[in-house]
Amino acid sequence: MKRSAGQDPEITARWRPATRAVRGGTARSDYGETSEAIFMTSGYAYDSAGEAAARFRGEAPGMTYSRLQNPTVEMFEKRVALLEGTETARATATGMAAMSAALLSQLSAGDHLVAGKALFGSCRVLVDTILPRFGIETTTVDGADPEAWARARRPNTRVFFLETPSNPGLEIADLRAIADIGHDAGATIVVDNAFATPVLQRPIEFGADVVCHSATKLMDGQGRVLAGVVCGTAKWMNDVYLAFARHTGPNLSPFNAWVVLKSLETLDLRVRRACENALAVARFLESRVTTRYPGLASHPQHELAMRQMAAGGTIIALFVPGGQVQAHALLDGLELIDISNNLGDSRSLMTHPATTTHYSVSAEVRAEMGITDGMLRLSIGLEDPADLIDDLDQALRRAGL
Ligand SMILES: *Cc1c(COP(=O)(O)O)cnc(C)c1O
Questions:
Q1: Is the CB of 344 under 6 A from ligand 1?
Q2: Before 168, cis peptide (omega within 30)?
Q3: Residue 41 Cα, ligand 1 centroid: separation in angstroms?
Q4: What are phi and psi of 165, to 5 degrees?
Q5: Count of alpha carbons within 13 angstroms of residue 331, beta-carbon side
Q6: Are 210 and 102 in contact (CB under 8 A)?
Q7: CA distances to 32, 168, 327 from 355, in Å
Q8: Which atom of ligand 1 sits closest to the CA of residue 119?
Q9: Distance between CA atoms of 124 and 315, rounded to whole angstroms?
Q10: Sign of torsion, CA 107 167 154 187?
């Protein structure tokens, strides 16, 4: 391997976030390529039987099998860890692989987990249905109310799991207050940071222990690959996470790791521009319909959002008075913005959560999460905000708003 500053912890520790996003973790092969290589290999060959044995004993450096290590995947992991401010990170095939492995690796039958109610749909299914099948007790609470987290603690509580801002209601959880309450009970604080990304919010700075991502969203940011990542201390990663994941294999493919690795180079630029666009669009929408956006003073937790986040994020929730019929009419009137349930793309996308992303969640749980029939979720991309506003203006008119 050639020398690369991105592999030197003393150098990368001095770098500011935008530099880390471009160069963190870069490893150069003997060709000295400037752009990172894709190592599409499942295995590794050894110079001798003795060397193979030494690597397996952990006494010689080098990789042994791509479920355990891969050079391209490792570059992505190092870069994300540098951005989140954690000692290590491990990549997974999807965001849900990251969430499920992060939780299953540390919970056993008889343990208890507390989660915020306002979770991504599949995270809610994981908490409500899948974990209890393995004898793990779960309680969901109003994530915005620290007292509710305190009341939910039990002697066997091992994990607090939350997402902020939440999807799709854009509720803000007070990371510092909830981390303190969880730590008092000896719980590990696991935060899904997909909506904010480390550009806007680093949960570790507020006391979180483990940070998970759907890298499918803003990290890729161009709607191409599914990916996830779990970040934490070296000790937790080795003793807890890898004790599970080494043998269950939720790994990310080297090709997808490369795609997201290259996307991280522009993460800072993209997220900041999309937030500027979102603020402009939210200001416009607020003049016409009920709008929730953490960057607007009208958001009930605006001050807390601005304490935790560098900007209001890239997602806006809007509420039309005419229920599903009017919400669908607004979507059908769009010309530029796509009707799509994905988010965090360079293209602006809008969806009706009650009939798509949260369709499989019961009406009761939807109500609990603030998902009404008139709610729409808008993910803002990198188009000119004036074009987005023009499109929304004409679609609102067509829907009678
Ligand atoms: C999309 C998403 C997930 C799931 O990620 P996948 O990559 O789709 O598996 C989890 N949490 C949040 C907040 C998300 O937006």
A1: no
A2: yes
A3: 27
A4: -65, 155
A5: 24
A6: yes
A7: 51, 13, 10
A8: 13
A9: 20
A10: positive
Rounded to the nearest angstrom, the distance between the alpha carbon of 272 and the centre of ligand 1 is: 20
102 C-alpha vs ligand 1 centroid, how far in Å? 14
The CATH code belonging to domain 267-398 is 3.90.1150.10
Q: Where are the domains of the chain?
A: 2-108+179-264, 267-398
Q: Is 101 in the pocket of ligand 1 (CB under 6 A)?
A: no
Does any ligand 1 atom lie closer than 6 A to the CB of residue 191? Answer: no
Amino acid identity of residue 285, one-letter, is L
* 314 ligand 1 Cβ < 6 A: no
Closest CA to 220 of 201, 197, 202: 197
Cα–Cα distance for residue pair 350/145, rounded to 1 Å: 29
Specify the ligand 1 atom closest to the Cα of 227: 7
Statement: 2-108+179-264 belongs to CATH 3.40.640.10:
yes
The rounded distance, in Å, linking the Cα atoms of 374 and 55 is 58
pLDDT the model gives residue 363: 87
The model's pTM is 0.96
pLDDT score at 264: 98
**Would you give the DSSP letter of residue 37?**
P
- Residue 74: CB within 6 Å of ligand 1? no
Indicate the pairing of strand 290-292 with strand 112-116. Answer: unpaired
Amino acid at 262: K
First-last CA distance in the chain = 61
State in Å: Cα 91 to ligand 1 middle. Answer: 14
Q: Check if 377 has its Cβ closer than 6 Å to any atom of ligand 1.
A: no
- The residue whose C-alpha atom lies closest to atom 8 belonging to ligand 1 is 95
pLDDT band of residue 202 (cuts 50, 70, 90) is very high
| Digit-coded pLDDT (tens) for 148-164 | 999 999 999 999 999 99
Q: What pLDDT band is residue 113 in, cutting at 50, 70 and 90? A: very high
Centre of ligand 1 to C-alpha 353, Å, is: 14
> What is the best residue among 100, 119, 122, 357 to mutate for testing ligand 1's pocket, by most ligand atoms within 8 Å of CB?
122
Task: Give the bridge partners for 375, in sequence order.
Answer: 319
Q: Which of 177, 267, 282 is nearest to 218 (CA)?
A: 267
Residue 86 to residues 76, 230, 236, 334, Cα–Cα distance (Å)? 14, 10, 11, 41
CA atoms within 13 A on the CB side of 121: 16
pLDDT recorded at residue 228: 98
